[in-house]
Specification:
With 349 residues, the protein is α+β, with helices and mostly antiparallel strands. It is built from nine helices and 13 strands. The chain folds into two domains: 142 residues, no CATH class; 147 residues, Rieske [2Fe-2S] iron-sulphur domain (Rieske Iron-sulfur Protein).
Length: 349
């Protein structure tokens, strides 16, 4: 007969259980908690006052460091480099921001630690393990312990610590707000405007010479930029990305849109070169249809009908620049674009 038919034979006997219990016991006696030793702050109020002033000093120093952090954004320009031993040549702005913010956070932590080690109760309490769901008696005891701990922490009595801690904690988050400045200056109306203005001449992008009406032949595509914008300028790329212009001369009787005709000069129409899909430069022109094609995603615009979109993913027509002729016979802008240039600006407001 197998042992599986008599499972009782495999069970441990009472003697084995007792023996196993003895083996499971720890050979070392439970030493318990050592006797509580009072700190000097517990028995000497003058020492407690000194600790209170130290904690308040650390919290106050944190507040001053936070103010210095904010002031550093105004005091130091981005490109200022200084020599600081032993770090060498470093950015004055980055060094001051790191130093002041680190000091602010360290002082809050050091103040909290010093408060806990010298003034809060350090008496150890034993809490036996219990079921997950606490009984009403345990809940009442926990609440009583919490109130006792709050009382022993002297949070309500030590007003100097409490108020200085609130000040430090209230000022530190301002550092995160000021960090938003690193995202760059506010755009203001820069996304809505370009450097085109009334009286600004149209300059050929290839020859860098002002354009006359006679320079634009019927069926030709000419690229232009505003007068005064040079390639060696520091902000050239930023400005040309909005002000790039393309000129096409169309027979006036072939222009379908009335406003386009009014804003043109002898059939010369000026439109933004920046595609309204993702901002690619438009460079392909079809003479017979007066269509321009963006080479990136094949958005197609009809320059004889207000540059409306006739194909592709672009969602808006190209902005038109109103042009005229100066007294010297040069083509000039009569203002800026009447709408923002570039892709997806309308959805951003």
């Amino acid at each position: 007969m197998s042992s599986q038919e008599n499972p009782e034979e495999n069970l441990p006997s009472e003697q084995d259980k007792a023996h196993g219990t003895e083996l499971a016991k720890s050979p070392f006696a439970d030493p318990g908690l050592p006797p509580h030793e009072h700190r000097i702050q517990d028995v000497d109020e003058r020492a407690a006052k000194r600790s209170e002033r130290v904690v308040a000093f650390l919290f106050t120093l944190s507040m001053l460091a936070t103010v210095a952090f904010i002031a550093s954004f105004v005091a130091f320009p981005v490109g200022k480099i200084v020599y600081i031993w032993p770090f060498g040549h470093v950015s004055a702005l980055n060094f001051s921001l790191g130093l002041t913010l680190g000091l602010a956070l360290f002082c809050i932590g050091a103040g909290a630690v010093h408060w806990g080690r010298t003034l809060m109760s350090d008496e150890e309490m034993v809490d036996e393990r219990h079921d997950i769901e606490a009984s009403p008696e345990v809940k009442a005891q926990v609440l009583a312990d919490f109130k006792q701990g709050a009382k022993e922490s002297a949070f309500g009595r030590r007003k100097l610590i409490r108020n200085s801690m609130f000040g430090a904690l209230a000022l530190v988050p301002l550092s995160g707000v000021v960090l938003l400045r690193d995202l760059g200056p506010l755009p203001e109306k820069k996304l809505r405007t370009t450097i085109w203005a009334k009286g600004k001449r149209l300059v050929n992008m290839n020859t860098d010479q002002p354009l006359r009406a006679s320079d634009i032949a019927v069926g030709s595509l000419t690229f232009a930029k505003p007068e005064g914008l040079e390639e060696h300028d520091e902000d050239f790329q930023k400005e040309i990305a909005k002000a790039a212009l393309m000129l096409v001369r169309i027979q006036p009787d072939e222009i379908k849109d009335k406003r386009e005709l009014d804003w043109s000069h002898q059939g010369i129409v000026a439109y933004s070169k920046i595609c309204t899909h993702v901002g690619c430069p438009i460079s392909l022109y079809e003479q017979q249809t007066h269509h321009v094609l963006c080479p990136c995603h094949q958005s197609t615009f009809d320059l004889s009908d207000g540059a409306r979109v006739i194909f592709g993913p672009a969602g808006h027509a190209l902005p038109q620049l109103r042009i005229g002729v100066s007294s010297e016979g040069y083509l000039e802008a009569l203002g800026d674009f009447d709408e923002p240039v570039g892709p997806a600006f309308w959805e951003r407001g």
